[in-house]
Design goal:
By secondary structure, the chain is an alpha/beta fold. Helices cover 28% and strands 21% of the residues. The protein has 13 helices and 17 strands. The strands form 3 sheets. A 6-stranded mixed beta sheet has the order 1-12-14-4-3-17, with helices on one face. β8 (292-299), α8 and β9 form a beta-alpha-beta unit. α8 (310-324) packs parallel to α9 (339-348).
């Protein structure tokens, strides 16, 4: 979320507090907010320009167009006069994220007959769990798509002071979707070799069906899918950590890897710190120049011995990331799962998380996704959306609270962003309240990233006008993928006890999901409808 230039809060220092403030679905208004939480009573006309922010001609609140891509300094490429800088509270800046674990774990929890905890719900991970319809760019980098639709005011159930007003006399609500996509890799032989260190939880809690047995089966499949010039190391941890296999080039050694995996057995308590520390030591020792060096952590993340908080573990991950470029991929398993810990580890390791509970899900992750994503299309990718104060009265980014970046850091390439591979899509959904009778420019979305090899900065932008926002979200001519995105976001906000304009309630959401499953012929949308029905049954 955008942080006001005058606020004492910072996303990096007070990330936990910011997430708590935003979890209730608080909407941003013009003027300075208390760091992303409940807004002050301030007029849009009182908003002041923030330092280091740029706008296009007309000062409509959008960032400057992309500058040259020849490696010039940031000041030389993107400098703009002070008079063109937009009001700070009309900017929203965040690091890109392709995590999906929150949605996967929520589905598993609902199947087990329990409602997920609100603090485990991250709406962006619900939204990013579904296939999108964005065009793919050629080569590295991103395409940028922006669309939207008006919400149904009759769907707003009540009013929460400072958040959502159900009246339509002072501007209409819309959902605006910002879609980013990277190109796919047509041939796996074109990617660099991979050096993967698997850090596997073999604690007693992993003996539950669907945990260690699923991990072993998944690794067996992956070992057969990787190329001969890829390398694998295996580290296990329970009360202590143990190196089961040093970094080994596959080639003629696949049987050696299979034997190491087959011998895994669940043991004692869970010392995540020991596992991660040893795993990174092995990864650093076995790292390969020019390869994709990655640690893959497979665990229920229920730490109960050693350093059970994330801070000490984060230091080791951060050192290896910054010095050696080793990233982390977290795979969660189990009916009880330490989602918050796993997410913090992956964020610090410039990686992402997912969650698996069935063999089909494991096959999708380890066979379909991981092998083709063993390369990067973008480093430190960040997005900034600039809303036009002439047309926009109020907006809220749905989710991404713990991926917030200060607005002035958008073009500071020392500030971490997200690491994005080929074939990924990233979706950011905004609730936007337009001014009554507003016409014209609504927002410009810009993505900035560093080239994976040269680290040269690049940018792409896309924008949306009021005329491009469809009359009604649920009309038949609205993109089905936009509608699926809306259902996923509404569902997530409902599970974390938030509220959004136009929310039709769980019964209505399930009905929309069923219709969309039929029109899209997408099994994932059918599963979404099942999850919504389970949540409604548990609440009833």
């Amino acid at each position: 979320m955008t942080l006001c230039a005058r606020s004492a809060w910072t996303a990096r220092t007070y990330r936990g507090a910011l997430a708590a403030l935003l979890a209730g679905g608080v909407l941003m208004t013009a003027g300075c907010s208390d760091g992303g939480g409940r807004p002050e009573r301030a007029s849009a006309d009182d908003a002041r320009p923030g330092p280091g922010l740029v706008a296009p001609d007309g000062g409509g609140g959008a960032p400057a167009p992309a500058g040259p891509e020849d490696g010039k300094s940031r000041d030389e490429e993107f400098a703009e006069p002070e008079r063109s800088r937009p009001p700070a509270d009309y900017l929203s800046t965040f690091a890109l994220d392709v995590d999906t674990a929150s949605y996967g774990y929520a589905r598993r929890t609902l199947k087990d007959g329990r409602l997920p905890r609100p603090e485990d719900i991250r709406p962006e991970e619900f939204v990013n769990s579904f296939r999108q319809d964005y065009p793919k760019p050629g080569g590295n980098g991103f395409s940028v798509s922006v669309d939207g639709a008006r919400t149904d005011p009759s769907g707003v159930e009540g009013e929460v002071e400072g958040e959502i007003k159900s009246d339509t006399g002072d501007g209409e609500w819309s959902l605006v979707r910002v879609g980013l996509a990277t190109g796919t890799s047509e041939r796996t032989g074109e990617r660099p070799p991979a050096a993967l260190t698997f850090v596997i939880d073999v604690s007693g809690s992993m003996s539950e069906p669907g945990r260690l047995d699923l991990v072993k089966k998944s690794l067996g499949i992956l070992t057969d899918e990787l190329r001969d010039d890829d390398s694998i190391a295996v580290v296990t941890f329970s009360k202590e950590a143990e190196t089961r296999l040093p970094m080994t080039r596959l080639g003629a050694h696949r049987d050696r890897v299979h034997r190491a995996v087959d011998r895994l057995e669940a043991r004692d308590s869970t010392n995540v710190e020991a596992g991660v520390t040893t795993g990174y030591d092995v990864a650093v020792k076995g790292r390969r120049s020019g390869a994709t060096n990655r640690v893959v952590l497979l665990s229920d993340a229920l730490a109960n011995t050693g350093e059970t908080e994330a801070d000490a573990i984060l230091d080791r991950i951060d050192d290896a990331r910054s010095e050696f470029g080793i990233t982390l991929f977290g795979v969660g398993v189990g009916s009880r799962y330490g989602d918050a810990l796993m997410e913090r580890l992956a964020d610090k390791g410039d990686g992402h998380t997912t969650y698996v509970s069935t063999e089909d899900e494991a096959r999708k992750v380890f066979v379909d996704q991981l092998p083709r994503n063993l390369e990067l299309r973008a480093r430190d990718a960040k997005a900034q959306v600039a809303f036009d104060p002439q047309t926009v009265r109020q907006f809220k980014l749905i989710g991404y609270e713990n991926r917030a970046v200060e607005d002035e850091d958008f073009r500071d390439d020392r500030v971490d962003g997200g690491e994005i591979g080929p074939g990924h899509t990233v979706t950011a959904l905004y609730a936007v309240r337009l001014r009554e009778g507003a016409r014209g420019h609504v927002a410009t979305a810009t993505v900035r990233w560093l080239d994976p090899k040269t680290r040269a900065p690049h940018e792409r932008s896309g924008s949306i006008e009021t005329d491009a926002i469809a009359p009604s979200l649920w009309r038949g001519d609205v993109s089905p993928r936009l509608q699926v995105t809306a259902v996923a976001a509404y569902f997530a906000e409902s599970l974390r006890d938030g509220s959004l304009p136009g929310a039709p309630g769980l019964r209505g959401l399930a009905g929309h999901a069923r219709k969309l499953a039929a029109t899209t012929e997408d099994g994932a949308v059918s599963e979404l409808a099942d999850a919504i029905d389970r949540a409604r049954g548990l609440r009833d």
